[in-house]
Specification:
alpha/beta, 10-stranded mixed beta sheet, two-stranded antiparallel sheet, 11 helices, globular
């Protein structure tokens, strides 16, 4: 093997380990097909790490990630750990610290509804006859989630809670460059979402977007207020190519986008940091958009596609194996076109082949 990459495998909780197993089978196949290798370090995270050592993000897990070229993440959390203090729960105690530790500021979340799966979308099918393919680029480390001051206090005899939405020009510039670069590789159309009619931070966001656009004259830039963007995603999702927005708005819109796509089980995501020195590749963390689904864990019925497509994003953005990434994405699309369906995307039609977790991965592997 002429190329060897190091990856950290954090399978997590619930359905995480079982869909991770299938995604690694797919990774094995493309390694053999495209002539590269991966050195894999498996580590505990989330509830599994709490059960093992009392903390959702152990030092050993951070060390394994630091020694890698990218992180393949499963899903964390579940009812078992919901009564723990908020900062020690799986999601808040693992995901946010990982993003902060590695400076993962750009979340790339595709919202794809394949033509053969338009029936699964709650959008009227006549509005999306050919499906849609939207990429949401969300700023991940700024805004109201991380701004200060933040807290609670007593004022004039009553409790007041407050958060601060704050953005620096440099934070806005770097996420916009990621979004414009993504648009250059797609349909060269970018929608910047803000609330510039109300928020001072959004006024700055829009000003910076207009300035950065001058570096990308081929990209058509449009501005939408966040409420209008939410409406248009339901009304005409196929009119969007790339969408970029700040942290809070991106959190909400990317979940809306996932819902109209038909199933969270189909959608991967990437959280990217800065480019590696002397390279066009990013250090990043790659995970399914859905949760740990503890209610179906261990039953072999979870959809593994989001985790498998997360492998494709890892290959493309962090490992530089674009051909292998494309092969995976093509293999997934063909499996869907051939009628293979896990329960979350099945309709009961006679032409469908309803399968479980392993069988869906088998169908994808057959296409590789």
């Amino acid at each position: 093997m002429s190329r060897t990459h190091r990856i950290a495998i954090l399978a997590g909780d619930g359905i995480g380990p079982e869909v991770m197993t299938e995604s690694l089978r797919v990774l094995d196949a493309v390694e053999s097909k495209f002539g590269f290798a991966t050195e894999r370090s498996e580590a505990l995270v989330g509830g599994a790490a709490i059960d093992d050592g009392g903390h959702p993000l152990p030092d050993a897990t951070i060390s394994a990630c630091e020694a890698s070229d990218g992180i393949l993440f499963g899903s964390v959390g579940g009812p078992k750990w919901e009564n723990l203090p908020p900062d020690t729960q799986p999601e808040r105690g693992a995901l946010l610290p990982l993003r902060k530790h590695f400076g993962l500021f750009a979340n790339l979340r595709p919202g794809v509804c394949l033509p053969s799966l338009t029936h699964a979308s709650p959008v009227k099918n006549e509005l999306i006859p050919n499906g849609f393919d939207v990429l949401c680029v969300r700023e991940l480390t700024g805004g109201v989630y991380f701004g200060s001051p933040k807290g609670r206090e007593e004022r004039d005899g009553e409790t007041v809670a407050f958060d601060t939405m704050i953005y620096k020009r440099s934070e806005i510039e770097r996420i916009l460059h990621v979004a414009f670069t993504a648009a250059m590789g797609r349909g060269k159309r970018l929608v910047s979402v803000d609330k510039a009619n109300v928020l001072a931070s959004s006024v700055l966001w829009r000003e910076v977007a207009i300035e950065v656009a001058k570096d990308y004259p081929e990209v058509e830039l449009e501005h939408l207020y966040v409420d209008n963007a939410a409406m248009q995603l339901c009304r005409r999702p196929d009119s969007f190519d790339v969408l970029v927005t700040e942290n809070l708005f991106g959190d909400i819109l990317s979940d809306e986008m996932a819902m109209i796509s038909g199933s969270l089980g189909m959608l991967p995501s990437a959280s990217l940091g800065s480019k590696k020195e002397g390279s066009d590749l990013y250090f990043g963390m790659y995970e399914p958009s859905g949760g740990s689904a503890p209610d179906i864990a261990g039953q072999g019925i979870a959809n593994p596609i989001a985790q498998i497509l997360s492998v494709a994003m890892l290959l493309r953005f962090s490992l530089g194996e674009a051909d292998a990434a494309q092969a995976i994405e093509d293999a997934v699309a063909k499996a869907i076109d051939d009628g293979y369906r896990t329960g979350d995307i099945a309709t009961g039609a006679a032409s469908e082949k309803k399968v479980g977790t392993k069988e869906m991965a088998d169908a994808i592997l057959a296409n590789l």
